[in-house]
Specification:
The protein is α/β, with parallel strands linked by helices. Among the domains are: about 250 residues, Catalase core domain (Catalase HpII,  Chain A, domain 1, Beta Barrel), CATH 2.40.180; about 140 residues, Class I glutamine amidotransferase (GATase) domain (Rossmann fold). It contains 17 helices and 18 strands. The strands form 3 sheets. Strands 1, 2, 3, 4, 5, 6, 7, 8, 9 and 10 form a 10-stranded antiparallel sheet that branches. The protein has a 6-stranded parallel sheet with strand order 15-12-11-16-17-18, with helices on both faces. The longest helix has 17 residues. The protein is globular, with a radius of gyration of 29 Å. Bound molecules: CIS-heme D hydroxychlorin gamma-spirolactone. CIS-heme D hydroxychlorin gamma-spirolactone binds next to strand 2, strand 3, strand 4 and helix 9. The site of CIS-heme D hydroxychlorin gamma-spirolactone has 26 residues, from strand 2, strand 3, strand 4 and helix 9.
């Protein structure tokens, strides 16, 4: 059991330390004894006697203190009162946005030194690891909402660097809905559940969202992303992340470069399809959270590559868009993404509330070597995040919470406040002489390494409330996105707009939005109008904006070009029944398992089924407890004819087919396929087939692995 150390011996009121002992985040493995203060925070572990908050041991916790066996409860029952009081105060306000999330610890390590561009300590030395905590999230839904809704995903990373905490608070899309932070409350009020009935949960398919967006055309580029499959990722482990804004790197000589940050998942970027995402929301609302957790527990540590787009300061005005405009990307074809390091998530939190819920990100948490730009969205964020933690975490001392504590030493003159965990000694003001002038600042002149120095930017101008004319083009990059999509992606985007606008009751909103879409692509606008039953929109006057995208197409934007090789961590279902060819099942386990996939056998019941030659085949899950949407691919082995009459199995296969998933069909497994597909497996794209009597040889499994690697056959 962890012993509460209490006040240091002989000094009941004044410990020696001036500040928190800064244990930083829990070390990998989470049980590193050197972190004594963290051990204390890690609570009294469970293997010991039950006590009150005061450490008084409790005789039992099942009955209140009453007068006799049937009498009233006594006010003096301090155990009952303390227990209920604590319980009554267990909830804290959820995040205004990004309330639903999941997090994990890991590390970041650079491939090379970036000293030429930045003095950021964690980017200096190849291979030197900096601990991180990452929280992924949805935006619209409350804490209990489903994971697989159509939404932007948050991708927030806290680097516990030796020179202080650096937070890169990004999303899985590289642009945003609005250009100026002053519009953020408007945008959030519009997208959140409607105020009168608190509907819909975790969805943007409602009037107020589209009302706002149709009137705020700067949202159009982001809408293209949100209506694309990027908004329904397969997994947190399989999505890109972006810092969105243009930031600044600053080197030891004080020279700045503009930078855009990119996270690229090693597993490739993959998405669900819309029908699948909706079914998943019911079958497993915790799909993404579970997936991240399970992968880390299994040792399949998710990994991302950090890439930077570096833009010399003299090129600030070299592009037909403004680098300060967060509704614009810098196309990779103009400025390539340079891989600079990797991040691995290798440890799950021990306590969701203490870590994932209490982690507090803040765009203004930057370290020497990184600085802001004047992006007006970023500037407002730099106020909002600290402000929101004050209400959410109940006061100004939240950075003392274990998950938020820097590894770097903290020595401030801040004092007191709710939740103060530090027993300060010393003065708490500067300048002072009685404390020997401590804590001290280095003063003028050349600053020692690790001291934050603001980038020296010349600023000159009148105070005005006016959007820069360089932010005025709202459509050219939306059109670039559309042009860069594969046909199937365009179809999914068209379907998504039609679904969302089809749910809007106000026809003026629908028509206004369709009219905006004509500025992106006339055929898109016309098709959406047709599907939602609105009149065909007039073509927009050609306004020359199409040239302002920077490039005619950007292949990097298409999911077609974001796949990875291999099938590591893909989930593969093998449907089995009495009479199944057990050797094939074993071959599937061996071969696909060797490729790093997770293979599970499913049957009408749990336990075992008996194989064709009498041997038992273990069943991992009963069909009733799972669903096709929870798997990436299916194997229908020989000897499973009976499943063709099992409605659960037929639905399972039919759904997988509809969702474009690869299948392996062997021998009489074709019966189930045909019951679900009304066609022969040979006629369907993405299906590896071996007929009756044909061997499931290496070539067959090679073919199936290659299909699985493709992930989807959307044109099926
Ligand atoms: Fe934000 C949370 C990302 C614009 C105000 N935001 C939040 C989180 C992410 C983002 C990932 C969740 C962090 C976590 O896991 O705890 N936000 C973005 C991105 C934006 C953006 C990529 C645009 C580029 N946000 C934005 C603006 C404002 C906010 C313009 C306000 C002016 N965001 C907040 C917030 C939240 C937040 C209300 C809610 C909880 C929190 O901060 O800690 O302050």
């Amino acid at each position: 059991m962890t012993v509460n150390p209490g006040p240091p011996e002989g000094r009941p009121h004044a410990p020696l330390v001036t500040e928190t002992p800064n244990p930083g985040p829990p070390a990998r493995g989470g049980r590193d004894a050197k972190d004594a203060a963290l051990d204390a925070a890690r609570a009294v572990d469970a293997d010991g006697p039950l006590t009150t908050d005061q450490g008084v041991r409790v005789d039992e916790t099942d009955n209140s203190l009453t007068v006799g066996e049937r009498g009233p409860t006594l006010l003096e029952d301090f155990q009952l009162r303390e227990k209920l009081t604590h319980f009554d105060h267990e909830r804290i306000p959820e995040r205004v946005v990004h309330a639903r999330g999941a997090g994990a610890y890991g590390f970041f390590e650079p491939y090379e030194s970036l000293a030429e561009y930045t003095c950021a300590d964690f980017l200096q030395e190849p291979g030197r690891r900096t601990p991180v905590f990452v929280r992924f999230s949805t935006v619209q839904g409350p804490r209990g909402s489903a994971d697989t809704v159509r939404d932007v995903r948050g991708f927030a990373t806290k680097f516990y660097t030796r020179h202080g905490n650096y937070d890169l608070v990004g999303n899985n899309m590289p642009v945003f809905f609005i250009q100026d932070a002053v519009k953020f409350p408007d945008f959030v009020h519009a997208v959140k559940m409607e105020p009168h009935n608190e509907i819909p949960t975790g969805a943007s398919a409602h009037d107020t969202f589209w009302d706002f967006c149709s009137l705020q055309p700067e949202s159009t580029h982001m809408l293209m992303w949100v209506m694309s499959d990027r908004a329904i990722p397969r997994s947190y482990r399989m999505m890109q992340g972006f810092g969105v804004h243009t930031f600044r790197l600053v080197n030891a000589q004080g020279q700045g470069s503009f930078v855009k940050f990119h996270w690229t998942p090693k597993l490739g970027t993959y998405s669900q399809v819309w029908d699948e995402a909706q079914i998943t929301a019911g079958r497993d609302p915790d799909f993404h959270r579970r997936d991240l957790w399970a992968a880390i527990e299994a040792g399949d540590f998710p990994e991302w590559e950090l890439g930077v787009q570096l833009i010399p300061e003299q090129d600030e005005f070299a592009y037909p868009f403004d680098l300060l405009d967060p509704t614009k990307i810098v196309p990779e074809e103009l400025v390539p993404v340079r891989p600079v390091g990797r991040m691995v998530l290798d440890r799950n939190p021990e306590n969701f509330f203490a870590e994932t819920e209490q982690v507090a990100f803040h765009t203004a948490n930057i370290v020497p070597g990184i600085d802001f730009t004047n992006d007006p969205l970023l500037q407002g964020r730099n106020f909002s995040y600290l402000d929101t933690q004050l209400i959410r975490l109940g006061g100004p001392n939240f950075s003392q919470l274990p998950v938020n504590r820097p590894l770097a030493e903290v020595r401030t003159n801040h004092r007191d406040g709710y939740g103060q965990h530090t027993i300060h000694s010393g003065t708490g003001y500067a300048p002072n002489s009685v404390g020997g002038g401590c804590p001290f600042t280095p003063g003028g002149g050349r600053l020692p390494e690790g001291v934050f120095e603001h980038y020296q930017q010349r600023i000159d101008g009148a105070a005005i409330r006016r959007r820069s004319p360089s932010f005025a083009d709202h459509y050219s990059q939306a059109a670039l996105f559309w042009r860069s999509m594969a046909d199937w992606e365009r179809e999914h985007i068209t379907a998504a707009f039609s679904f969302e606008l089809g749910k809007v009751g106000d026809r003026a909103v629908r028509q206004r939005m369709v009219a905006n879409l004509t500025r992106v692509d006339q055929s898109l606008a016309e098709e959406v109008a047709r599907r939602i039953g609105e009149p065909a929109p007039q073509p927009s006057p050609a306004d020359g904006e199409a040239n302002a995208a920077g490039v005619p197409v950007s292949p990097a934007l298409s999911l077609e070009n974001q796949r990875a090789t291999g099938i590591r961590t893909r989930k593969i279902a093998v449907l089995v029944a009495d009479g199944v060819d057990a050797e094939q099942v074993q071959a599937a386990r061996n071969r696909l398992g060797a490729e790093g996939a997770t293979v599970e056998t499913l049957a009408g019941h749990g336990g075992t089924v008996s194989g064709r030659d009498g041997q038992d085949v273990a069943v991992d899950r009963a069909l009733a407890t799972t669903a096709s949407v929870l798997y990436d691919t299916l194997v229908l082995p020989d000897g499973t004819v009976v499943l063709a009459a099992d409605t659960d199995a037929v639905r399972f296969v039919g759904e997988a087919l509809r969702h474009g998933k690869p299948l392996a069909v062997l021998g009489s497994g074709a019966a189930l396929f045909e019951a679900a597909a009304s066609g022969r497996p040979e006629q369907v794209a993405g299906v590896a087939v071996r007929g009756n009597g044909q061997e499931a040889d290496t070539a067959f499994w090679d073919e199936f692995v290659a299909l699985t690697e493709q992930h989807r056959f959307p044109d099926r």
